[in-house]
């Protein structure tokens, strides 16, 4: 039996809509409405024998809005990238205050000038989790855009510099399948809310 893993990015938080790095932000009413609309139009995707989530409030609340509570398993490896001292800070502020550090971070996947996690470290964390993931059948994981990027980087064995070229919008769905060839990426068939 194969493993099918759907990775779903949570809706944008209010902080993200203002251009700030995440800081375990909760979902506001707008984001909850978006998650509920997604659930209504994509119920066919949400049938799984296992529901996983990042431990972040926005991901756990999204999982609940998608109908997975109370059976959702919180997985630390699916946590948002650690942005260190940049957590909660707006990009525009950092561009003024730390332009060299921000530029280095966007160009060098091994850089972590904020004192947190680099893109390379995130990809290693997510890749290690994916390789160790033991489940047969369908699973759904609610997580963050950065984690989904890292999963794609790992599965497709992309060079580290490609990380910044993968865009994962809110409530995006990425389907991964594991079989004889290992993990593969498949287009997810979902309807926009």
From TrEMBL:
InterPro entries: His_Pase_superF_clade-1, His_PPase_superfam. Keywords: Hydrolase. The keyword Oxidoreductase does not apply. The keyword Membrane does not apply. Its EC number is 3.1.3.-. Pfam families: His_Phos_1. It is an enzyme of class 3 (hydrolase). GO terms for molecular function: hydrolase activity. This is Histidine phosphatase family protein. It comes from Paraburkholderia azotifigens.
């Amino acid at each position: 039996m194969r493993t099918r893993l759907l990775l779903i990015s949570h809706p944008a938080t209010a902080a993200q809509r203002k251009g700030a790095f995440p800081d375990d932000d909760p979902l506001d009413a707008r984001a909850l409405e978006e998650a509920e609309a997604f659930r209504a139009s994509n119920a066919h995707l949400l049938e799984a024998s296992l529901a996983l989530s990042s431990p972040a409030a926005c991901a756990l609340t999204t999982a609940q809005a998608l109908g997975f509570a109370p059976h959702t398993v919180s997985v630390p490896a699916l946590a948002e990238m650690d942005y260190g001292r940049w957590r909660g800070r707006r990009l525009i502020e950092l561009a003024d205050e730390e332009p060299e550090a921000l530029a280095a971070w966007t160009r060098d996947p091994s850089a972590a000038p904020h004192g947190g996690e680099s893109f390379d470290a995130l990809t290693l964390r997510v890749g290690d989790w994916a390789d160790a993931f033991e489940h047969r059948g369908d699973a759904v994981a609610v997580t963050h855009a950065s984690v989904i990027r890292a999963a794609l980087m790992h599965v497709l064995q992309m060079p580290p510099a490609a990380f910044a070229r993968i865009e994962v919008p809110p409530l995006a769905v990425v389907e991964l399948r594991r079989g004889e060839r290992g993990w593969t990426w498949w287009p997810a068939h979902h309807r926009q809310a």
